[in-house]
Design goal:
Elements (H helix, E strand, L loop, with lengths): L13 E4 L9 H16 L3 E4 L5 H12 L4 E3 L10 E4 L6 H12 L5 H4 L2 E4 L2 H10 L10 H8 L11
Parallel strand pairs: 1-2, 2-3, 4-5
């Protein structure tokens, strides 16, 4: 928030933000995450988000917290990657798959996470692919690693821009 700017009141008390736990490959993504956090502060809006302290989620939450607003992280008890089957009849899900592939290309989704999405044009092919699916895990953060991040022992970012 700029010095001398006045607080604007919003009709929202809080906003839930969904964004990546990765930073992406372009600095514009990181800049926009920080700008969003500062805009929430300027409008007196608290943040509800996925609870991560890394990537774009970490940047938004840090900016809101540093600005004196409340930050509420909601973290599911277990995160278990499961295959997702898409019955892609007549290419119905092609746009969604292209969107996901673009997210991989831009660094928001890891290539191994992309692999949980299984698609096929017919029910028989889809069921066969799902039955043959073998998960591949890139890496999983240990509980102690995550807890250390929550205590502030993680990478820091300069959000004073």
């Amino acid at each position: 928030m700029e010095v001398g700017s006045e607080m604007r009141q919003s009709r929202f008390k809080s906003i839930c933000v969904f964004c990546g736990s990765s930073q992406g490959k372009k600095s514009s993504y990181q800049d926009s995450a920080i700008e969003l956090g500062k805009e929430l502060v300027a409008r007196n809006i608290d943040l509800v988000y996925g609870g991560g302290s890394i990537g774009l989620m970490g940047l938004v939450s840090q900016a809101v917290h540093d600005g004196g607003r409340h930050v509420i992280g909601v973290i599911p008890k277990t995160l278990m990657p499961r295959e997702v089957g898409l019955l892609n009849v007549d290419g119905y899900y092609n746009s969604l798959l292209s969107f996901i592939d673009k997210a991989v290309e831009e660094g928001f989704i890891s290539p191994s996470a992309r692999q949980i999405i299984v698609s096929a044009p017919t029910p028989k092919e889809l069921v066969k692919k799902l039955e043959e699916y073998v998960p591949c895990h890139e890496r999983v953060a240990s509980k102690s690693s995550w807890e250390m991040g929550q205590l502030g022992y993680s990478q820091t970012y300069d959000i004073s821009r």
